[in-house]
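Format notes (please read before filing issues)

Several people have asked whether sequences and structure tokens are stored in separate files. They are not. Every record keeps both together, in the order shown below: the sequence lines, then the token lines. Line labels are part of the format and must not be stripped during preprocessing.
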Amino acid sequence: MVKIDNIELSDFPLLLAPMEDVSDPPFRALCKEQGADVVYTEFISSEGLIRDAAKSTMKLDIYEKERPVGIQIFGANLDSMLKSVEIVEQSNPDIIDINFGCPVKKVVSKGAGAGILKDIDLMEKLTAEMVKRTHLPITVKTRLGWDHDSIKIVEVAERLQDVGCKAISIHGRTRSQLYKGEANWKPIAEVKNNPRMYIPIFGNGDVDSPERAKEMQDDYGLDGCMIGRATIGNPWFFKQVKHFFKTGEHLHSISMRERVTAARRHLQMAIDWKGEKLGVFETRRHYTNYFRGIPHFKEYRLKMVTSDNPKDVFAAFDEVEEKFSDFEF
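Then the structure lines:
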């Protein structure tokens, strides 16, 4: 059994990664139903929280059915990060996660996200002060380093653990790589195999098949894996991985009916959460992804992404289910 502080998880937990414009409450709910052990919110700006920016505060919405759930925040200013902890606590998450890994330029340019990998002392100080500020477990998501020549992830992990961090998720790329090339899991294994480490170490990056998740467990000895892009349009990925771990076989492909049902539920939950206009507009990227790989699909995709009326979108789902009922993914 793996534990994040006092939170008991499975032997090899699967975590839904925090993803901007992806891991919102409806998507998290679907992933939770399909076997995600821990889910994380989209990453939230500490500056946005203390300014009470609507987009930031809305991301604090969490629901009982998601637990255990982590709220992830980013920033480089100590005062802002500490104030944001107090705001986050009011949503009563199970975990507060610090984003020290986002490679996006607009985040990095402010010294936040992966930008803080240039200043390990600040990274340690921010973590230490946030641990002191809250009773909730503080965890960290980060990368191997700023670039290939500055990888110090074994030292970084030790320092974060020593100031009270309860778990670390490590993406197997540097900031300079962005999402290019292959993720390198060997340095993550070095962190895990360091005899000084006793907190859970989760691997992240390129877990795009059940076999890769099994490799992360068997060949690299990690405590679990955090999965991001492989879940987009496929919340069933968690169920597929767990089925493979249990049986050594692949789960049946997800049928068109299951996909349409998920798309319908996703859209309806988004409407219930955000209202009709935002729910339809901001969920388009999701419900088109449920149907990736279908040939001659352009006509139906256009119907889904150009209508502002949910009735039209639901009707398009019905058309897709009827026309492509025999399509095998």
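For reference, the curators noted about this record: The chain has a mean pLDDT of 93. The radius of gyration is 20 Å.
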